Structure formats: C-alpha cells, structure tokens
What we know:
The protein is α/β, with parallel strands linked by helices.
Amino acid sequence: MIDYDKIFGITDDEGFRRAALELFRFQAERCEPYARYISLLGIDPAAVTQTERIPFLPIEFFKTREVYCGLDAPEKIFTSSNTGGTEPSRHMMADLSLYERAFTEAFEHFYGPAEGWSIYGLLPNYLQREGSSLVYMVDRLIRRCGSGGFYLDEYEKLLDDMARDPKPKILLGVSYALWDLAERYAPKLRDTVVMETGGMKGRRAELPKAEFHRILAEAFGVERIHSEYGMAELTSQAYSSGEGIFRAPAWMRVLVRDVNNPLRILPAGSRGAVDIIDLANVGSCAFIATQDVGSLFDDGSFTIEGRLSGADIRGCNLLVQ
C-alpha cells in the first residue's frame, strides 16, 4: 500500500526519488498495461534506480487500455473531451479523497487558503458533458471557497455577480470562452485573477500563447494571465502566474524527451516532448509520456508550447493499437 502522506510530504529531490521508485515498482507489477509495455521494452524494473530511467507510458494507452491498479473497483472514471471524434481517455480514479487532497494542496500551495477566494468557472464545454475531472475539481474548490459558481454563456450575470462580490476572485475559464467574454464586453475586472485552462476546442483560431494572453490582459484590465495545466489522465495540476511559465507541486515533475527517441530524456534547458511524473496517480500510472511539446528550465519550471505533430502515431506506442 502506497503511503499518501509520504507523497504529499515530499520536500526534496531525494524524497521524490525514493517515492517515485517505490511507486514505479508497485505499478510495474500491478498495472497490467504498464507491466506489459515495460516488458516489451526489455526493461527490468528492479534494475531501474534513477527516475530518469523509469519508462514513461504513452498517454494514448488511456484510450485503449484499462490503466488501473486499484485493489477495488474505481470510485470514479474521469474522461477527456473527444474533440475531433477521437476516442476519449478514461482515467480510473481508485480513491476520490486522494484526488481531492492533490488538487486542494496544489491550489493552496500556489494561491493560499481557498476560503480567501471566490472562484467563477467559465467552462461551458466541460459542463456540457459527463466525466470532466476539471469540473469536479472546480466544483469542490468553489464549495471550499463558499462563494463563486459555474456559468455557461450567462456573461452579463457572471460579470454582475463578480462586481458585487467583495472577495478576491479567480475567473477560471476555457480559452475560447474567455476570448468570447473579452471581445463582447472587455470588462475591466477588479481584485481578479484571470486563469485560462487552455483549449480552443475548435471554436476559435489558435494563437501564440503570448499574443492570446496579451489580448485577454488588455480586455480584462489585468497585468498578466494565469494558467492551469492539467489533463484527464493526471491527478495533479501545475499553475502559471504569468508569461506561460508553469510550476508544479512537489510530488509532480516534468521532464522533456527527444521527440525522435522517446526513451532519451533531455537535460534541463532543453526543448522536447513532455513527460510527467505525477505521484498522485497512485491507482493508474504515475509516469506518462504526453503529446505536448515544451521547454524545461533549471529550476524545474516549464512551458507548454503546443502538441506534437502526428502525435497519435509517434513514439514508442507499443500496444496502443
């Protein structure tokens, strides 16, 4: 049994290394798709002694296999949006209390106690489907705040409610909805952090992130735009307080790999495809090779620059088909 307190109590690199290797060996034995993938790579889990040597499971496995190692049936199955008609990913959550602890501690690490905020969620495409982990997270944080709420396209009501709210506010929205709000109203917000979660979902043209943030900041009258980085396949989130530079909680690390050799981890300061270690992914797989491209800095912060071209067919995607 993995000790949750050990995961959330990580304070240094050595503590992270020990916890990562312990969880790797557990999942290499218990998570059948991951175990088979490791076997096909010819890797002996007992011989892996460095986190950089842990094999990362291609994220596509969450679409085609049951990536799960819980003892009992999952408490919840979160799904990704299936923009473009692709098969959605399925993340089987063994323990919702673990998910709630992860997103609460990560949020409060970067923003302080949730009770000090009101959160306003502008997440129309997520609210209109079942199984969104983002909606679950924001809903629980709103309850913890005690103020705020969800909105679809009720922009005037959203702005009125925010204007009457005396607390500091976070307007958390999917990118295209924030852009719509900015274009239609250009409201100058007070005591408000504007946080985008990414995703035009085919609704608007994709812009370079810096240009998109400039448009939002000017329309909303804020100095910078914050961002949240998460996905259905993860339990944890990273946050950016501006300029697209993300920082992760202590139990989550980002590495970058060579796009042409997915088993080669690049040094800090490099640009490549993004690998993630999320030690809160206890009941699934904590070691994920994503389809994102980004840069990693010496202090562990990172940027996300877009998606791999032909992402569904690149890399070591053994067993995906």
